[in-house]
Amino acid sequence: MNQLEQIYNNAAEHTKIKILEDADRYLGSKESMPSYKEYLSERFHYIDQIWVNVWLNKITAKISKHEKKKYLSEKGYDTENVDRKIINHLFRTEMRDYQPFNSLDWLNDLFENNNEAWAGRYENARAHYLHKAEEERLQRKKYRIREDIEKNIDEIIERDYSLLYLHVRHMASKQLVSDFRNKIRYQKAATFALEEKLEETGSFDAGDYTVMGEFLDELTGNIHKALYGGKGYFEYEAYYYVYKNHISGFLSDSLQSLVLQNLPHHLFEEYEEAYQKPLTGKSVKKLMAHTLQDLDESFFESIQEEYIEDLLRLADIPFDPEVHKDLLEKDIADRERKIAEELAEQQRKKEEEERMLEYIFGQEYSPSVERAKRYVLHIGETNTGKTHHALEGMKSAQSGMYLAPLRLLALEVYDKLNREGIPCSLKTGEEEKAVAGSEHLSSTVEMFYEKDYYDVIVIDEAQMITDKDRGFSWYKAITKANANEVHIIGSRSAKSMMLQLLGEADIELNEYSRDIPLEVEAKEFKFSHVRKGDALICFSRKRVLETASRLQQEGHSVSMIYGAMPPETRKKQVQRFTKGETSVIVSTDAIGMGLNLPIRRIVFLENDKFDGTKRRTLTSQEVKQIAGRAGRKGLYNIGKVAFTKDIKRMKALLEMEDAPVHSFAIAPTNTVFERFQRYYRDLGSFFELWDKFESPRGTKKAALTEERDLYERIRGTEIEAKLGLMDLYGFLHLPFSKKEHDLVRQWEETMYAIIDGEELPEPRIKNRNLEELELTYKAIGLHLLFLYRLEQRTEALYWERLREEISDHVHERLKTDIKELSRKCRKCGKKLPWEHEYQICDECHSSRSRRRYNYYRR
Asked: What percent of the chain lies above the pLDDT cut of 70?
């Protein structure tokens, strides 16, 4: 440890300094010189301890942890994985007796037999002590004088506060009149946007402002330097700063004169005696700096609250304290009266608005069951036969309607009933298929119309009532179903909500459990484990296609399901799997709703999904809904479930007891719009009121985000001017993918064609690749939504046939396009291994990390 000698010498010198400082403090406090022996007798213990403290502190601070551990190891200590504090304690213990410095011997050498040196030390220490004591006395005197002066300043301000404000008010009024007469008004602009030239808008008009604070936001046209967060920035100047500086300058000068004229004479004398200079205006400004700042803020705040008309009237009245005081009191009384009137008017408007909101919205969303004579609840897990039993009740009825959450399920029931010899029509918004002699209808839940009567109505996936955007369709269907018997199908989580909604109605409750148990595999899934009957689940179209391509390249025959896939194509993909033409299916969570397939094992390739806002872990209900598709009675009597990671956590989600849903979604209805139109005629006002309306307990409002976004595109245009409010909202509410730019543009072009009385623009047909075909399918679907809404059914038939052809093309392209598909780095295009976890290669990731490192180093 070659540092020890240097540290030791430094500690010894530091110890000597501290001992001499102690001696000086001791000697200086004595009126007569004590002997050296007297000093030692009183300060021996302190002198003896100084070395130990200085030495241990320096050696601990200067020696590195590594050197300490090395030294302790040489002494026989085990220092591996030992806390830093313990290392320091052991090291200090070992160092305590290392070559002690004999402080007493060193001090004795200086003073024991050298009375002259001791006396000289005393004279210097005593002189320093007395000088310091005198300085402290003077500082106390100065402090007392400052306190007396500041106290007098406060008393002067308190006495003349009203008079000062009257002066400030009169000054501000004269400045305001001058500015209104002589200054130019500029267009509002961001103060920091100096690159933008200010536009003149003419002269100021007093009628544009109520209080002074509103005028102070106007720009002067000049540029000034302002402080933000301690830094200076150049920006366009507002009158706020002009008037603030005027008031601050006026108060500083006025108060300075006022104080100098009214301070007691003895304070001037005491100040000059203590400071050896006279009390001047400059000194007074320093003494009243904080008080002046508070006064500035108070007066400027009061000026901002002044009515513009009061200040303009005041400017031409010569200043007389009594006259101006009377005017101020009158103006304050008038202002308080106006404020009271404004508050009363605001309260009246608020109460009127509350009554309006209650009339428009409040009465519509109180649960009340209508018309249906009997309700049959089918509650249970996925794949338990709930839908089958409900449909049996509908099939045997003279008339019936099935309400599906998805167009695909509506198509399935439509096909099923017609295959079984029960004529059934179809209505989904994008197509209408009328079957001769049909008394049954398969429909999406959004197509429900409460005035149509059926013997039996079946409402599927009732737990969707909680969905923030679509849930109200289920609420409306359940509570307003016009039928002798209503069958409601839902998960266990929906049970309490359904019973609450139905209240005292005649209810039959059927609860279902799986005949086929689910078994979670203990080992993490690998692609080499793929077997016939597996359904591999991931949560994006891209991942589905990549996974299917990988499986095909490894010799598996594959079906695919994802949300953007046309329902007809999805149906064909499912049929191939059901018939055994494919051995494996790769799907998004679209598989979890209504599809009963011969699945041996559900494999979760991912445990989280992007929900439109953020990436999050799957919920218990999502895991159950998907995993429940595993197993098929007579074929796979145990449903297998596998995960690629976090098996314990995902198994817990699967086995977790269903939490009951406690709220349902609400959305605008025709009745709401009819009531709204008694007050307003524009959708902008409607959306504002919808935001203000407080959703009743147990409900949550639909955000209407997509409708608002579309509305902003056509707000103030001919479309809004020429269409009735309910018609316009109906077009905004059309169910299409509003995140697709091409579809939004198509919607807008079609809207203009409608109001201009022209033929609807035909959808753009693109077929260069799979993605374009799927977008074309959606574009035709949107076109059909318009055609059926406008009752152009003949035209719709052509586009339905064309859409079927597009879905056939999608089906065929799925067979070919994914054969050579591979994972590629999104940055450089380099081919990635299938197992690569990220979307960029290691080289691109390293390059990006280096760039970030170099950026932060700069």
From this structure: 95
